[in-house]
């Protein structure tokens, strides 16, 4: 029953980080444990995807239904695969310095062998996953200072330039 909750201030906009996390089909390009991803269906508010995760000699595929509440929240509901359950939630809250990201994951594998194997590396795997998303944001949006400027609405004035 590994569980992890983390809150981070990340210097990108909620919209940018939401879009990055919601782009499930690209996960194999940057998440170290994600061997494959297939988005079955996608609407503005929901997607269904198959992810294949691999670590060590283990390789498992699972299906999840992902609720998309742009740009504030992404909730993952487990549908089928090797887990007894899987709960995963991302929330994105605006902050003057970027975005306050809350990440929560809780799961249990059906197999005791898989559960024991992930238990040994779980904390390191989650740390690597969060770091991979931050690196991906930098790769896509540029350094945080550039990303914040690009994320401002066209009519916004940079801080400290006067105005009203």
Automatic annotation (TrEMBL):
Transmembrane segments: none
Domain Coenzyme Q-binding protein COQ10 START: 10-133
Residue span of region Disordered: 145-164
Family membership noted in the UniProt record: Belongs to the ribosome association toxin RatA family.
Designated name of the protein: Coenzyme Q-binding protein COQ10 START domain-containing protein
């Amino acid at each position: 029953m590994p569980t992890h909750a983390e809150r981070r201030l990340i210097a990108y906009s909620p919209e940018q980080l939401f879009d990055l996390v919601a782009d499930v089909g690209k996960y194999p390009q940057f998440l170290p444990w994600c061997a494959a991803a297939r988005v079955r269906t996608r609407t503005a508010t929901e997607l269904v995807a198959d992810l294949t995760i691999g670590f060590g000699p283990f390789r498992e595929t699972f299906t999840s239904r992902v609720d998309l509440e742009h740009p504030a929240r992404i909730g993952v509901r487990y549908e089928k695969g090797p887990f007894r359950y899987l709960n995963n939630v991302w929330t994105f809250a605006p902050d003057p310095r970027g975005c306050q990201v809350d990440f929560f994951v809780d799961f249990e594998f059906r197999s005791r062998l898989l559960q024991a194997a992930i238990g040994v590396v779980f904390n390191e795997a989650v740390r690597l996953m969060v770091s991979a998303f931050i690196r991906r944001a930098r790769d896509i949006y540029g350094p945080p200072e550039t990303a914040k400027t690009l994320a401002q609405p066209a009519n916004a004035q940079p801080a400290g330039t006067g105005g009203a």
